[in-house]
What does this fold into?
Amino acid sequence: MARRIYYNVHTHVFSKHCIPHGIMGSGFGLIIKALEFIQMNNFVIALLSGLKILNVSKSSIPRLKMFFRSFAQGHQHEVITHLVRDQYGKFAYDKNFKFVLLSLDMDAQDAGIAPVNYLNQVGELAEYKAIKPYKDQIIPFLSINPYNMIYHRFHMMKFIKDHIEVWKFGGIKLYPATGYYPDDERLDDVWKYCVAKKLPIMTHCTCGRIHYRGKMESRLNKDKIPYNNLTDSDRQCNFTDMSHFVKILERFPTLKICFAHAGGIVFSKNPRTTLEAELKVTPLSKRAIEYKWYLEVLECCQKYDNIYIDISWINHDEITLIELAKDVKARSIEKKVLYGTDFFVNIDIIEEQKAMENSQKHFDFDLIASVNPSIYLSSDIHEFKATEP
Ligand SMILES: [Zn+2]
It folds into this structure.
């Protein structure tokens, strides 16, 4: 009988040493700071849980303790073991799963220098992709920030082609909030290459915790600031705005892009009636912008053949899944939904196992975690199947 292959299309495995000091604000940042000074023992995890910084049950404390020990050790390999190996006890997955590992270029966002810089971060992933037991289970994506100084040393397209074609990375990762526009002309050749090879792109499309930490004016283009009213870190929305993606899609309508977290709106915190009302108020609030993105992303899924959304991170919230499932059905875009969790960035909000159960409850899991991702991930260079003999 054919065996079904499942995919989690959205995970992160960078270790503490890949993270520049100034990268995050509260919450997760506090957890990282705690790791600087103390071992993550039972007491500290219970304390973080009590302070509502970590949202975990008592029974998961031993597992988290082991995770934090790995996270602090330096190599991403230690983090990956929690996702794909069984040596620490069943962390999350007992099915035949493959994992998209999203690298993240944190070198070019004025947040400081990480002990393991971006070149070394992707170098490690390339190494794991080449060896057993990971080579068949992991699908690294290559993060691109055109401001990274490495592109003065390496030609960007050669850097990308080497990673995709030689070291078997599966696609491209974008994170515009780290200080660049997705329609930055330096990325034009990347989109041409992705179209020609049918390569998947994953982009963040939320106003979140990781963003450009320097002077926003130095990266913002005064002719491309859709939200002049926003201040401080919220100004990151100007990089990520869907209008920039729509411009790329008008030029490259067959581009294959997954919008992470379906725009990131959490409906349990934001009732739809409130969001609809806020959409009518100008200038738009940050929350209204995120809801607008949500609607625009769904619209793009309808309009373009190769546009997808993933339910990573938002699957901590069942109300969001219920609302999204309704919208997906109304638009007949069931084939555009992909399963992901945002491991391990979701660790302060939900357990991996529970995120999967929530997803199974509200969506056809074989469709979103097997059939759809096998189509999204397959390119002219790499083939991914939904089942195997
Ligand atoms: Zn993520």
The first helix runs from residue 28 to 37.
